[in-house]
Specification:
The complex is a heterodimer of chains A (945) and B (73). Chain A contains 29 helices and 36 strands. Chain A is an alpha/beta fold and 945 residues long. In chain A, the strands form ten sheets. In chain A, strands 13-12-27-26-25-14-15 form a seven-stranded mixed beta sheet, covered by helices on one side. In chain A, strands 31-35-32-34-33-36 form a six-stranded mixed β-barrel. A five-stranded parallel beta sheet of chain A has the order 20-17-16-21-22. In chain A, helix 13 packs parallel to helix 19 and helix 22 packs across helix 24. Chain A is globular, with a radius of gyration of 29 Å. Chain A starts with 18 loop residues before the first strand and ends in an 8-residue tail after the last helix. Chain B is an all-alpha fold. Chain B has one domain. Helices cover 77% and strands 0% of the residues of chain B. Chain B is globular and about 30 Å long. The chains are: A alpha/beta (945), B mainly alpha (73).
């Protein structure tokens, strides 16, 4: 076991199909036309010295180290910027080149500290390597020459150090920030000898526009930009490839280790979702795994007012099983249930739903997707035939018009956003539909052609108006519709969509978006050779979430934007494994593979596999579990990795339901808001401590690999297995690979998936079966999964949540780049430096009329409750709209949100709450009481001597 | 009405409104199919009991859909 070294080819691969043959150092080499001489040489096994070149970036040709000689050509061209040609004869090692390279290296080293032995990059420094490669033996320029070696270090960023004294001004960091990340936070300031890398306008790194994605650190060939963790711990000695446990992009990382200690996570170039890029969360925010707050021993208590008591695993599992069995004996089979986690692996999620269906004997299983993308499942299954996005992420590279609805990719899915921005910089057009002016609307070298800043709650109206324009102006793709969809259903839908109520002119009044803007956006999308739709929780978390997904699917089908690269309907999934948790049968009405529990054929498969009869009746959804708890008929809940008391809406309803239960079991990393109401705490483990798979937003199944032993003693799947055995449901898996084999046996879309196949292919996008043995990057290519695409009428129905004299503003919620969901992980890292509290964004006009200044404490009240937080004045939100995040439990943003939910799936309407804002003196009485309660609920009794 | 029944009435009416464009009988069939697919038995029992008590708050399509489901039960 050693470090995984990825070859740096120096320049990017060529996409050309025509091949050319040349000779390099006497060897014949055949490569695609357009390949650089440097890359061709590397592919042939010849290393040409280089410093400014790296294959993540476009060729630059500044360091003058990669010079070569080419027969028949004058001079010594840079191999990184010279494309190959048929018959070209290249010499990479000659006396002349050696002399030139030594001279160049001598100049670099003359202005570089010679502290290699104590340098953090010692052993991983390209400058050091190149000095060796060119045979540098002396530096003739002594102390008399002016150097940059006296410059001060910038330690403002908590994750990496910027030491300009070691900079060779190769511009790799500047180019990485521009080309890969698309933030353009770095620049080269000055000219000639005065040239230096500068964050912003000579700002500290932390104060600049830097988003800490780590691309510059990764690109730096010296110790100029260096991870703090490497400075503190030294160079890693072995590594494993694993998958990030944050958002639904699913970035691949090399976990670089010293023993069982993580030194750093470095994005893996061969990762098909991220292609070697990362964000501040995945790259740096993994310290929570060893945070002092981690609970590593099981605990139980009789009452939620008692202190916790640490017990053995045996006692905790036996107690839980005993309690669940008692409750079922007293209150019936349906009196208990469970919640699976989108932060856990497919295998763990599969086991939890198996335990509930086969062990508890009911279908009372739900998952956090209930509160995020359940409408995606409903909408896309009904229109296209499958509950998933249609494309892979690479598809965006072929999009001509990108329509982003209710998503904030630069904050929520930053690595994919970087790829999207790159495509936009290449010339694709952008339409943003969002109440808030998200960063994507105007960011360096990207500007949306149209920003439809609609009123929260009017998504269906505006998407219908786009469709109205397209159909009424004859911009729909009749040939596609006739070939791929049901024409009669289209005709019915077209008749509906052409009603005056769906016209942009009518909808303008509802949405606040001028009709001309709606029409122009519709024409732009419909006229694109490839039009791609990306959407997020701003679509789904509404009372009409499912209707909007259906309306989006209608729009894509009407314009023929389905079934090839560059187009499609792409839900940007919130959590790392929300796609997987849905695939694995986490909903109360569906077995794995989205087959209804009443489907006799599907049920028979599982009954045969599991050896027990299964219920064909749908179970309870989370809000209905809580209602049933209040009614006294649902009294036991097994929650793996979800903090419903913080993340779910209408906190008082959640707390009421949890308090009414007799046995709440929380399996998680930390004591959280939900565990305040729990009777059993089973310590879980992080993604670094277990094996399994995650499935990202593009249906890509990727391996999670254990790099350290579970701090709590067991992987989460093992804990579920122990509980199942104690409940009388035998489970004897020795490794998660065996669970995946069972998934493949029972789930047609996973039929070809196994750990062996994943090892061989790297990753697999489902469906993976005999027809598609290596997976399916783009769906619905030859026909829709359901046969013919189904147009469905999606009528706009205004939400019941109305503004009025008491609550005149509309609150919408979202998240920020540096924090992740309820913040349980990111709040326990240095990411807190960027977002230490939730703020309420309010338009200056609304603030002025309320006497609110920037930074003031304000009271935020809705009909559901009230809380206090600080105000941030900004015109990102329109007058009448306010916005906040929900990353901090002290804010309790979900005290404000209501119990309104999507008509089809009960996905909560987080995005529309009528509120009032007024000045406040600080945290509300409720918040202070809650904090006191929370502290009391987390007491752990001292173990008896 | 209990808070749970309040929620069930709201849910049923929301589903009904989503199919509001369809002719009455078709809408009733769609609403019934949707509720049959997604509602747990005790939810159905509670809303049926509510109908027995007059079914306050339920719109016509929702009420007819639930009645049709009850006939199947």
């Amino acid at each position: 076991m050693g470090l995984i070294h990825e070859i740096d080819y120096g320049t990017k691969p060529s996409a050309a199909t025509k091949l050319v043959t040349l000779t390099i150092d006497g060897e014949r080499v055949t490569v695609p036309e357009g390949t650089s001489v440097m890359r061709a040489a590397t592919e042939a096994g010849t290393q040409i010295p280089k410093l400014c070149a790296t294959d993540m970036l476009d060729s630059f040709g500044s360091c003058r180290l990669c010079l070569v000689e080419i027969e028949g050509r004058n001079g010594t061209p840079a191999s990184c910027t010279t494309p190959v040609a048929d018959g070209m004869v290249v010499h990479t090692q000659t006396g002349k080149l050696a002399k030139l390279r030594r001279g160049v290296m001598e100049l670099y080293i003359s202005d570089h500290p010679l502290d290699c032995l104590t340098c953090a990059a010692n052993g991983d420094c390209e400058l050091q390597d190149m000095a060796g490669a060119v045979g540098l033996r002396e530096v003739r320029y002594g102390d008399a020459v002016e150097t940059h070696t006296h410059q001060a270090k910038d330690n403002s960023n908590p994750y990496f150090q910027f030491d300009p004294s070691k900079c060779i001004v190769c511009s790799r960091c500047v180019r990485a920030c521009a080309e890969v990340q698309g933030t353009f936070a770095l620049t080269i300031e000055g000219m000639g000898f005065d040239s230096k890398v500068s964050p912003g306008i000579a700002e500290a790194m932390f104060d600049s526009e830097c988003v800490s994605c780590g691309a510059c650190v990764q690109a730096c060939p010296t110790a100029t930009l260096m991870e703090t963790s490497v400075i503190e711990r030294g160079q890693p000695e072995h590594s494993k490839i694993t998958t990030c446990a944050y958002c639904g992009v699913g970035c691949s990382f090399k976990a670089e280790m010293r023993g069982e200690e993580v030194v750093r996570l470095v994005p893996y170039k061969d990762g098909k979702a991220n292609h070697g890029h990362s964000c501040v969360k995945g790259r740096f925010a993994w310290g929570y795994a060893t945070h002092r707050d981690r609970i590593t021993r099981p605990m139980i208590r009789a009452k939620i007012t008692d202190p916790w008591r640490e017990v053995s695993w045996e006692e905790a599992i036996a107690h839980t099983a005993s309690e669940f069995k008692r409750i079922q004996a007293e209150h019936g089979v349906g009196s208990i249930g469970g919640i699976t986690s989108s932060r856990c692996t497919n295998e763990e999620t599969f086991l939890v739903q198996k335990l509930i269906r086969a062990g508890f004997g009911n279908n009372n299983v739900d998952t956090c997707a209930r509160v995020c993308h359940s409408p995606t499942g409903y909408g896309l299954k009904n229109t296209f035939g499958t509950s998933a996005g249609t494309q892979d992420f690479d598809s965006v590279e072929q999009a001509d018009v990108i329509l982003v609805i209710g998503a904030n990719p630069t904050d929520g899915h930053p690595v994919f956003a970087s790829r999207m921005k790159k495509r936009l910089r290449e010339g694709a057009a952008l339409i943003v539909v969002d109440p808030r002016r998200i960063d994507l609307v105007r960011t360096p070298h990207v500007q949306a052609q149209h920003h439809l800043a609609l009123r929260p709650g009017t998504n269906v109206a505006i998407v219908n108006a786009l469709a109205h324009t397209i159909v009424s102006e004859g911009l729909h793709d009749e040939a596609f519709i006739r070939e791929r969809c049901d024409w009669e259903e289209f005709a019915e839908w077209a008749a509906f969509i052409l009603q005056p109520e769906n016209s942009p002119e009518t909808v303008a009044e509802l949405t606040g978006v001028p009709a001309a803007e709606i029409r122009a956006a519709a024409r732009l999308y419909a006229s694109a050779p490839n039009g791609a739709i990306y959407y997020g929780l701003g679509v789904t978390e509404h009372s009409q979430g499912s209707s909007t997904v259906i309306a989006i699917a209608n729009l894509a089908m009407a314009t023929g934007n389905i079934g090839r690269p560059g187009v499609g309907v792409n839900p940007l999934r919130g959590q790392n494994n929300v796609q997987g948790s849905c695939d694995m049968g986490s909903f109360p009405h569906e077995f794995p593979g989205y087959r209804h529990v009443s489907d006799d054929t599907a049920r028979t498969i599982f009954e045969h596999e599991w050896g027990v009869p299964l219920s064909g009746d749908p179970g309870l959804r989370i809000p209905n579990m809580l209602d049933a708890a209040m009614d006294g008929t649902f009294l036991g809940l097994y929650i793996q990795g979800e903090d419903i008391a913080q993340s779910d809406p209408d906190t008082r309803h959640i707390v009421g339901g949890l308090t009414a239960m007799q046995c709440v079991v929380v399996q998680d990393l930390f004591l959280n808001e939900t565990s305040n109401y729990a009777h059993v705490f089973l310590p879980g483990c992080t993604f670094l401590e277990k094996d399994g798979t995650f499935t990202n937003a593009e249906r890509r199944i990727q391996r999670v690999r254990r790099v350290m032993a579970p701090k709590n003693g067991y992987a989460d799947w093992q804990i579920t297995q122990m509980l199942a055995n104690a409940m009388g449901t035998p489970m004897h898996y020795a490794h998660p690979a065996e669970i995946m084999d069972e998934i493949a046996r029972t789930t047609p879309t996973f039929a070809g998936v196994s750990f062996d196949a994943l090892e061989r292919l790297g990753s697999i996008q489902w469906p993976c079966n005999a027809k598609a043995p290596e997976g399916t990057p783009v769906m619905h290519v030859e026909g829709f999964v359901r046969g013919r695409g189904r147009f469905m009428i999606s009528e706009y129905v205004a939400t019941d949540e109305k503004t009025g004299p008491r609550f005149p503003l509309l609150l919408t919620t979202g998240r920020i780049l540096s924090q992740y969901n309820v913040g349980a992980q990111t709040r326990r890292t240095a990411n807190e430096a960027w977002h230490e509290e939730d703020l309420l964004e309010i338009h200056p006009h609304d603030a002025e009329t309320r006497g609110v200044k920037d930074g003031d404490w304000i009271k935020l009240a809705s009909r559901a409750g009230e809380t206090s937080l600080r105000a941030k004045l900004t015109d990102r939100v329109a007058p009448g709209v306010v916005y906040t995040t929900f990353h901090h439990p002290v804010t309790q943003a979900n005290v404000i949100t209501t119990d309104y939910s999507d008509w089809a799936t009960n996905c909560p309407e987080y995005k529309v709450t009528a509120v009032q804002v007024s000045l406040s003196n600080g945290p509300s009485d409720w918040q202070q009481a809650y904090l006191a309660h929370s502290r009391a609920a987390r007491q752990i009794a001292t173990a008896a001597e | 009405m209990s808070a749970t029944v309040d929620r069930l009435v709201m849910m049923a009416n929301q589903i009904s409104r989503a199919f509001g464009r369809l002719p009455h009988d078709e809408a009733v069939a769609q609403v019934a199919a949707h509720i049959r697919s997604f509602w747990e038995k005790r939810m159905l029992a509670q809303i049926f009991e509510h109908i027995d008590e007059g079914g306050a708050g339920l719109d016509a399509v929702a009420r007819d859909a639930l009645q049709s489901l009850r006939a199947l039960a």
